[in-house]
Amino acid sequence: MTLYRFKSRETGDLVMLKPHGRRILEVLGKDPSGPGIIVPGQMAAAVQALSEAAVAEEAEQKRLKDEAEARGEVPPEFDQVSLRMRSAPFVEMLQRCEEAQVEIVWGV
Hints:
4-stranded antiparallel β-sheet, 3 helices
């Protein structure tokens, strides 16, 4: 599988490249190797987990840049699309599906 296709009855399909979809699933504690489901009761916690992971990523990147600058080194470069930006459509999907009380599935 080179793509993840997240599906729900409430939204259109959300398609992500494998590395990005895998990362989001890992943040959510879901097994990225096969099909899966997120039920409405898990969605608020999923939104929170993605938000916390984005904050942690931003803090880690800032720390690494600050340390490199303090040593007089060139700061490291990171992916231009942050986890916060990359997960925004997924967070919206989670929120809409939670409100509609429908699940999100992938790999089916």
